[in-house]
Design goal:
- The complex is a heterodimer of chains A (about 290) and B (about 230).
- A two-stranded antiparallel sheet of chain A has the order 1-2.
- Chain A contains eleven helices and two strands, in the order ααααββααααααα.
- Chain A starts with a helix and ends in a 13-residue tail after the last helix.
- Chain A has one domain.
- In chain A, α2 crosses α3, α2 packs across α8 and α5 crosses α6.
- By secondary structure, chain A is mainly alpha-helical.
- Chain B has a single domain, classed as P-loop containing nucleotide triphosphate hydrolases (Rossmann fold), CATH 3.40.50.300.
- Chain B has nine helices and ten strands.
- The chains are: A mainly alpha (about 290), B alpha/beta (about 230).
- At the A-B interface, α6 and α7 of A face α2 and α3 of B.
């Protein structure tokens, strides 16, 4: 039963990783840009919630309502003011700029919030659990996290698959030059995608803060896990991102069960194994070779 | 007044000059053929009109307004649709979605999904399939339909018949005549001269980035066209 519990906890952890990975996957799928500051934006959002909790005494889950729109706006501005200027200059400039942003955000957080580890207290929800019988129990909050991840993915899937803007996103991801001939302004579309991406990662950051402690320098680790989830699932596949997150989560909890220090390492090893056996991931969407 | 007036248009790819002082006018409702050999600058010309290439504002006028160098998506708003060389169907989109994305900036007008399907019944049959599952000829129909969905005032078709079987080319030109009969102003870039001369009111032959011959098809002899096309 203990092993069933380990796998179950890993799957639930996968929900959180999927939330981190979804925005990364979206941005890569639409723009072929890797946002190296993705993890730091999640920590920025978590500290945003800390500030609201400290100043106004809000429940961190209420802070979501303010932080998520603020981060979406930040994403929109980031794309409009910075990243759109780098379009068509190859893959290196966005990598350098987002790497720089990562450092700037970390140092700004260090200045503003010191190097102390922080945590968000949602008032009991984080410790409440649901007994499943046979000695198994799942934390309510982990369950909510997974359900939110699924809801976000369903919502995103419907948006991309069924709406006019989603169709334009797919067209632009296929062939931006021809999409422009359809009257699609790729720069506006990219700003929208970045807003969605950072809005989702803001949810991930706040959920992370409820689940565990974080500090100004927690971002790069989150980016790495998000990366691994995306690669395992397959670039550009939204549901693959959830599966990738769950595989990574199960690998980490299983490794940690074998020996407490092995969790992260086992996750990396599974990631490397997938990279060796299926370099395009498990659910990669077929793409044109160009 | 001409719907499209291009005056002394020079266009560059970096340091490479691809067009040298091209001037031409297209009247409302007219079908114009642009012919010429590979590398003559025909596609560059369409790209310059459609906003794909940066060109001086005054070099391209649409209905009297200077529009040269506006970005491609702005030109769509102004009613210029380019059906690109190689069809450029979106592989992630179905046939119907490819058409709908053509109406992204819904200018109002007579072209709707239903009317495009009437024009190309083959597309209606295959509306749920990925756009790139179609044959070359069907993809060209889809690309033209996608262009029409934006209800353009000016339809630019690049390399209409490239790589297509003669029977398909004949069908496409019949459709083009139908579209023209509804009053659409069309510029067709073509290497296959015989077909396009039948539908065109004016023909411009390009050579080495400049207009080497212009006139009405009836006024031009084969020998003059051949000389302008290949250089004498």
């Amino acid at each position: 039963m203990a092993w069933v519990d380990t796998v179950l906890q890993g799957l639930l952890l996968g929900g959180l990783y999927a939330l981190f990975a979804t925005g990364l996957s979206l941005i890569f799928g639409v723009m072929r840009i890797v946002n190296l500051a993705h993890g730091d934006f999640s920590i920025l959002a978590a500290f945003g919630a800390v500030a609201l909790v400290d100043a106004l005494g809000w429940n961190p889950l209420l802070a979501l309502a303010a932080v998520v729109p603020a981060m979406a706006l930040a994403g929109w501005l980031l794309q409009r003011v910075v990243l759109n200027r780098l379009l068509g200059q190859g893959i290196l400039p966005p990598v350098l700029v987002t790497f720089g942003l990562s450092i700037v955000i970390q140092n700004a957080l260090l200045e503003a919030f010191s190097a102390d580890s922080r945590r968000l207290d949602p008032g009991g929800l984080d410790t409440a659990s649901l007994a499943l019988g046979a000695g198994l129990a799942v934390g309510w909050f982990s369950l909510v996290t997974l359900l939110v991840a699924v809801a976000v993915l369903v919502g995103l899937q419907l948006f991309i698959g069924r709406t006019r803007l989603g169709r334009a996103l797919r067209a632009s991801a296929d062939d931006p030059g021809t999409a422009a001939l359809m009257g699609i302004d790729d720069r506006r579309l990219y700003a929208l995608a970045m807003a969605v991406s950072l809005g989702i990662v803001a949810v991930a950051g706040i959920f992370l803060g409820v689940r565990t402690t974080f500090s100004f320098s927690s971002g790069p680790d989150r980016l790495l896990f998000a990366f691994e989830a995306v690669i395992i699932g397959g670039l550009g596949s939204l549901w693959g991102t959830l599966v990738g997150g769950c595989i990574l989560g199960v690998a980490q909890t299983t490794g940690a069960r074998l020996s407490p220090g092995w969790g992260i390492l086992t996750g990396h090893l599974v990631f490397l194994a997938v990279l060796l056996l299926r370099p395009h991931g498990l659910f990669a969407r077929p793409r044109r070779s160009d | 007044m001409s719907l499209l007036a291009v005056r002394e248009l020079n266009a560059f790819y970096g340091d490479f000059q691809a067009l040298f002082g091209v001037s031409l006018e297209v009247a409302e409702g007219e079908t114009v053929a642009v012919i010429g050999a590979n590398g003559a600058g025909k596609s560059t010309f369409l790209g310059a009109v459609a906003g794909v290439l940066p060109v001086p504002r005054e070099a391209v006028r649409l209905d009297g307004d200077a529009v040269g160098g506006l970005r491609a998506h702005r030109m769509v708003d102004l009613g210029v649709a380019l059906v690109p060389e190689g069809r450029r169907i979106f592989p992630s989109l179905t046939v119907e979605e490819n058409l709908r994305v053509g109406a992204h900036r819904a200018r109002s007008g007579r072209w709707t999904l239903r009317r495009v399907f009437e024009l190309f019944p083959r597309l209606a049959e295959r509306r749920r399939q990925p756009g790139t599952n179609l044959s070359g000829g069907e993809q060209q129909m889809l690309a033209i339909g996608r262009g029409l969905m934006g209800n353009p005032r000016l339809l630019l078709v690049d390399e209409m018949s490239l790589g297509l079987a003669p029977v398909v080319v004949k069908q496409l030109y019949e459709v083009l005549a139908t579209i023209a009969a509804e009053g659409m102003t069309t510029v067709v870039v073509e290497q296959d001269v015989s077909q396009v001369l039948r539908v065109a009111g004016q023909v411009f032959c390009f050579r080495k980035g400049a207009v080497s011959l212009a006139g009405r098809p009836a006024e031009l002899t084969r020998a003059r066209i051949a000389a302008a096309y290949f250089g004498a």
